[in-house]
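Please decode residue identities from the backbone states below.
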């Protein structure tokens, strides 16, 4: 296993769709692709972790500036292929994300974590994240 990380170029961003679909199995790949193309125009970036040339994990990234926290990076849709979990791939991926955030003068990383995903909650807690609020959503008709 030869792991490395890099920012995925806009030109190759579609390569993340199969991994993102693991987190969103209810969404068709075409819908994810359409949303991805729009997200890219709004500043969406993605860090990839590779085993040689094979993309095995991704972490979407938004750099945002909000009143309550200032400049921060939001990891989004973080996933590593099951066969690479607990083998250092996620740790390497997040180390690269935190380094990117630091290079862009971010003071914090903050994210949303689904309440029905206790494994993710445990992972993010081990990463040093602490609950700050409750993410809420309202469907608009």
């Amino acid at each position: 296993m030869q792991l490395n990380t890099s920012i995925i170029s806009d030109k190759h961003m579609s390569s993340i769709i199969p991994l993102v679909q693991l987190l969103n199995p209810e969404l068709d790949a075409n819908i994810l692709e359409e949303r991805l193309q729009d997200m890219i125009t709004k500043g969406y970036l993605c860090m990839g972790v590779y085993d040689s040339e094979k993309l095995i994990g991704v972490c979407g990234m938004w750099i945002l500036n909000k009143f309550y926290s200032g400049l921060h990076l939001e990891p989004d849709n973080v996933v590593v292929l099951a066969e690479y979990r607990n083998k250092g791939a996620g740790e390497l991926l997040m180390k690269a994300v935190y380094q990117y955030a630091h290079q862009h003068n971010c003071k914090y990383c903050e994210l949303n974590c689904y309440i029905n995903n206790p494994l993710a909650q445990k992972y993010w807690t081990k990463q040093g994240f602490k609950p700050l609020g409750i993410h809420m959503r309202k469907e608009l008709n």
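Observation: DSSP finds four helices and five strands in the chain.
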